[in-house]
Design a protein that fits this description.
47% of the residues lie in helices and 17% in strands. The protein has 13 helices and 11 strands. Helix 7 crosses helix 12, helix 9 packs across helix 11 and helix 12 packs antiparallel against helix 13. Bound molecules: (2S)-2-hydroxybutanedioic acid.
Length: 335
């Protein structure tokens, strides 16, 4: 069986790949893996996906070609999940806030406000039982979770300073998908609205929404800070990604290729998680220097008031994500 480069690129089946592997002509036809994501190259996830490409192509001796499509070039938020299940893209790294449409709303537990103390604790927790337990939820959906990637903590912004819970009253705030975020913004009196990441800049600019939350690296690279007069460096919730693959495709790969890809993914994960904090600190510094927005930090009393206002989300979350993941998280974050 001879497969042309073009057929590989068009998403040939894993079974056909396995059959062709090792036969004459293999060397000329690398397996093409499309890796789609929605953020800029110059972010932790953007750099992580390029690191994975570099290592995967190196470790497989060119038998695999990774095509990285950043900035929603190939698919937007909702479409990419469908595309993964249909096999028209092989790897994604969506934020875990976007997993409910896959039937895995338990991932939203990670959006609880002030859940993680810092990025270090986040990383430890995700490498432990919680991370494994969540990935198990994907198996029945035909998806395998390969890794968790860090992107730090959310800030929040609008065209007025957001310092006290009352400042949120009546504001339309863009959220990325999680019902937990929907809930805590409602607790603050605002009106959350789900919107694809690629549409946020324009929505902020034209006033379709009044505000949003995101990490410094996303604010900077999407220029959200240029269309928001005030940003509060609240770090009220964490943004993380799950790198996921179509399991039929992944399991159909020849075992030695898969082994090398796993190795590349593990190293790319360590790399991404090691740069996330600094990337976001640098981005925050650039935002500050740009002078295009005013940055605010919360006093202890203001933070306490946010905590208190958002507290009902914790009680509500149990009905949404179930007690099991909450128990696992509370055990893991209390050590
Ligand atoms: C968002 O939609 O705000 C984020 O999930 C984008 C991303 O992937 O960092």
């Amino acid at each position: 069986m001879k497969l042309t480069r073009r057929e590989f690129g068009a998403g040939v089946s894993a079974a056909a790949l396995a059959m062709a592997y090792g036969k004459p002509g293999w060397a000329q036809a690398p397996v093409v893996i499309k890796f789609s994501h929605v953020v800029a190259n110059d972010t932790p996830k953007g750099k992580g996906s390029l690191k994975f490409k570099e290592l995967a192509e190196k470790y497989t001796g060119g038998k695999v070609k990774i095509e990285v499509y950043p900035n929603s070039q190939l698919f937007k938020d909702k479409e990419e999940m469908d595309a993964l299940q249909l096999g028209s893209v092989q790897i994604l790294a969506p934020s875990t806030a976007k997993f409910a449409p896959l039937g895995a709303k338990e991932f939203e537990a990670l959006d609880l406000p002030w859940l993680f103390k810092d990025d270090k604790q986040y990383e430890t927790v995700m490498k432990g039982d919680v991370g494994k337990w969540l990935f198990k939820k994907l198996e029945s959906k035909g998806i395998i979770g390969l890794a968790y990637w860090d992107n730090g903590f959310h800030m929040v912004s609008a065209n007025r300073p957001l310092l006290n819970p009352a400042d949120f009253q009546g504001l339309k705030i863009r959220i990325s998908g999680s019902k937990i975020a929907d809930r805590y913004f409602r607790d603050l009196g605002s009106i959350p609205q789900i919107m694809a990441f690629s549409e946020v800049y324009q929505a902020l600019q034209t006033g379709v929404v009044d505000g949003c939350e995101n990490t410094p690296s996303n604010y900077l690279t999407q220029k959200f800070h240029e269309v928001q007069k005030h940003i509060t460096v609240s770090y009220h919730a964490h943004l993380q990604y799950a790198v996921i693959v179509n399991s039929k495709f992944w399991n159909g790969l020849p075992a030695d290729l898969r082994g090398n890809l796993d190795k590349a993914m593990n190293e790319a994960t360590d790399y991404t998680n090691s740069i996330a904090v600094k990337e976001n600190e640098d981005a925050l510094e650039e935002i500050k220097k740009s002078g295009k927005t005013e940055l605010h930090t919360l006093t202890d009393a203001q933070r306490k008031a946010w905590h208190a206002a958002m507290q009902p989300t914790y009680t509500w979350a149990k009905g949404r994500v179930g007690g099991e993941v909450l128990d696992l998280l509370s055990k893991a974050t209390s050590v």
